[in-house]
Amino acid sequence: MRKNLYNLQGKCMFNFKNYLFAVLVLTFGIFNINVVAQDSSADEDVEEVVITGTRLSDPNLSSVSGVVAVDAGDIAERGVVAVEELLADLPQISLGQNITDSNGANGSSTISLRGIGSDRTLTLINGKRMAPGTINGGSAANINNIPVALVSEVQIVTGGASSVYGSDAIGGVVNFILDDGFQGFKASYTHSYYNHKNEDSDMRALVEAAGYPQAPDTVNVGDNKVWAVMFGATLGDSGNVTAYLQKRERDAILQSKYDVSACALWDGGPQAANPYGCGGSGTVPWGRFASFGGGPITDWNYSVAPGTNEFEDYPGPFNYGPFNYFQRPTETLSGGFFADYEIADNMSFYASAQFMDDRTVSQIAPSGAFFVTSSIPCANPLMSAQQFKLICTDQGLTAADSTPSYIGRRNLEGGGRQQDIRHNSYRYVMGVEGELSSGWTYDVSYSNSETAVASTYMNDLSITRIKRALDVVADADGNPVCQSVVDGSDPLCLPWNVFVNNGNQIVDNEADGVTQGVLDYLIVDLYARGEVYEEIWQAVLSGEIDALNGANVVVGVEKRTTGMDNRPDNGFLTGDGAGQGGPTKALGGEYSVDEVFFEMGIPVSDQLSVDLGARISDYSTGQDTDTWKVGAKYVVNDKITVRGTTQYAVRHGNVFELYGDQFLGLWSGSDPCAGSSPSASAAECALTGVTSAQYGSVPDSPAGQYNAIYGGNPNVNPEEADTLSFGVVIVLTDNLTVSVDYSDISIEGAIGSVSPAFSMDNCIATGSPLLCANINRNSVNGNIWIGSGADAPNVVSTTLNLGELSTSGYDIVADYSMDTAMGPLSIKSNIAITDTFDITEVVGFGTAECAGYWDGGGTCGGPTFELQTVTSATLSLDQGDLVVTHRYLDEITDLGPFDSPIDAQNYFDAAFSTSFGDVTVYVGVNNVFDAEAPVLDDLAPNGNTFPSIYDAFGRYIFTNLTYQF
Q: In the chain, what are the domains?
């Protein structure tokens, strides 16, 4: 049978989420409990282990890098239904894509160590690579594939491990250890939901002032359910098989249910000197008609007055926020097996197979005519006399002319845009391992994985059909008819009457408003299909070299092939979807890498050991890389151990960074040269392409969204990183262990892109031709947001090697246990201190110091906490275990122009577990006191806040039932 090669030795050091020693002392003072001395435990048999972060195997090995671990007990105590929820609470990890993403969601869940990017974090299952991501995302593994019920432990190495595992482990490794040796039967059911009382008086006042509907007083939303079964049995005396099946369902949550997201906020933040309010989009259900500086005589900005077919001055934007999902609905079915069998003396065959079928739906506000037309025929018979006068006659135009008017008309009649995203993935691993007569061991394996993605974008409008449905003339009988019907180019076209405001009621007669027939004509569904795949061959040989004082050595070879193929339909290819931002082209690519690696652990003395490692990689792209590491561990005495590593790591661009298609998308921010009173001068705006005639009249985006060109670059070079980490483990008493680890990661030639906001701001500040060339304004009025075709204005933000990134900080973990009169008590703490987090988008243009800041739409992005902690206390009573957890997120300052600071957040969680025979019950509440999420502005990723970081949905109430024998 296979040995358990994945568990940490010395669990008292690294087992759980831990806290700062000073907090422990304070906690004991509050508890005021008499401490009873514990009996020392009996010596346990020493088991050969492999620690995540190294392939070296030695009975006396402990990690030269800091390792944070959580186990199945932690998962049960949190009541999580997906591993992303557990990892999101760990100070060392931030989420990338996750279930709270809606606009721009790709349906996956990804993680980032130290906040340096999901593509720099390697994710493993039982020490072997997970499948790469999804075609509409990055290469980072989709952790939705991890079955919560089967996780026995998660080990996290934060010091980098590229020489051990490959180039994408610059930030570190997250190893999900699944219980592949389970025996017996286990069935579990978890149910959870969110409870929240809406009482944010400031937000309610803003919503009331805007005339929008309020969020309900109290909500109970977001039902989450997980059913899981596991079975394990021995295969005689020669092996074991474990199988599992898990189903997960998560309900949708709308932004309309919460005060924080009841309206889309204007940029500004809740500052008395910089008031803010409910904003939204300029594409409105009642229609917006604007010349945007192109009027022949005067400019105009009209909407259709309620209950009429006459223009009034544009009253303001549309509140799109309540339509958006705060949490996407998902359905996931996953299953698989793990097996091993001894086929001969000292030789075992092992195999595993896993599958996942996942469906999720994102929803955002209805589609519409997002100013895709630039003129209206004055002969359109659907216009009233008043409308004709204002935009035609008063402009010196006749019925034979067209008036230069853009139309922003939201398709409220058709409902929200939804994207149905389905993943079907599999991963199988097989191999042979054993021991040679020399005492050396071998492991030869093959793995294959593939994720197929089917994406259906529903309820969008066709740009081509919008233009035809608005190009309306009168037939011989005076009835409205599409010009394309008259000339025969599109006999199916029906007129779209956007000149009537009837409250968005669907009608039977085109003269009265929008008909079902024209909705059926305008609405299109868009489809995309594709696959991401990876194949790995690996052979590893390990043993001891007596001539080097019994040094433990690992040598290996690996061949890895990764590729992708994306096949969008014609609607995506041509960019015909009005709500898509631009075309999505077909793309595909593949590369392979041949690698040789080794590690050596040399016991210099009883107290000092040295680790060496290197990896040489030959890529099919023509690029070669090499990485190395040097580490050491010194046992000062039985109380103090000092450790450290230095590593040189190189990350080759992944298949998405190399071959991702360049496409038109959106970015959130501001245009300093837009509006009647631009914040930048005429000379500065001229650098960005604004003419003197345009200055002071450049149309600004009401939604704060602008066009950008994103995508890959096959000429991107590998990025280089230097990593330094050192730390100390101190056994203060028999019951208290504290470890302190410092790490420093510096990346040069960072693979990334220059953000549109950076190009804009630094073009204005410096006049750099490099950055100013990225800005491509509309030649008529200077905007950078109207249109979605090939000629749409934009700011270029494609993949390059122009930047640098560095971060440094401390991880402090501690574990204390004691006996009390009430029962055993353990207190576990995990704290992360970020000393620096610096981003240089382009060398020579300054560095953003992001520790302690957030910068929506800018260089820093989301919050980077200088201090983040998790502390849990578990009291084992006769009736069961009581767990109380405190989570702390430090205060954050806004670096952006609108000053939206975030106060420090404190969350308290409580859980209780007890057993009745073979049944164990867990009940709990996270965020017991229903702390409100911080309210920011529309530069935050979803609902005016960061729902993947803060507890935006209120109390999380859960119950878990587990039956096992």
A: 11-265+324-365+419-458+527-669+704-755+797-964 (2.40.170.20), 284-317+368-410 (no CATH)
